[in-house]
Design brief:
Length: 115
């Protein structure tokens, strides 16, 4: 099983980034996919989630209207479009797959929002 995040980097406040999480080794279309983040000295927190078929999404309150999660089941990939980024969005962003019996994590990708 592999979950590989990409797309992180350094961006100025107000900018945008699109994270990708490309997966393999499990039945992607059967799993709810989530993005989490962890800032230095803080607990890991849920950013967004998307149902296995992609029809239902939910977001942490602080991300609503700025972040958008999507998935492509044909490509076994989940995305996180992040707009209007703020310095407080700086964190390592992790991809998570949760099924009926198993849960998998990616290694994370660093997002730094700074001028």
């Amino acid at each position: 099983v592999q979950l590989v995040e990409s797309g992180g980097g350094l961006v100025k406040p107000g900018g945008s980034l699109r994270l990708s999480c490309t997966t393999s080794g499990f039945t992607f279309s059967s799993y709810v996919m989530r993005w989490y983040r962890q800032a230095p000295g803080k607990e890991r927190e849920l950013v967004a989630a998307i149902a296995s078929a992609g029809g239902s999404t939910n977001y942490a309150d602080s991300m609503k209207g700025r972040f958008f999660i999507s998935r492509d089941n044909a490509k076994n990939t989940v995305y996180l479009q992040m707009n209007s980024l703020k310095p407080e969005d700086t964190a390592v962003y992790y991809c998570n797959a949760r099924g009926a019996w198993y849960e998998y994590w990616g290694q994370g990708t660093q997002v730094t929002v700074s001028s």
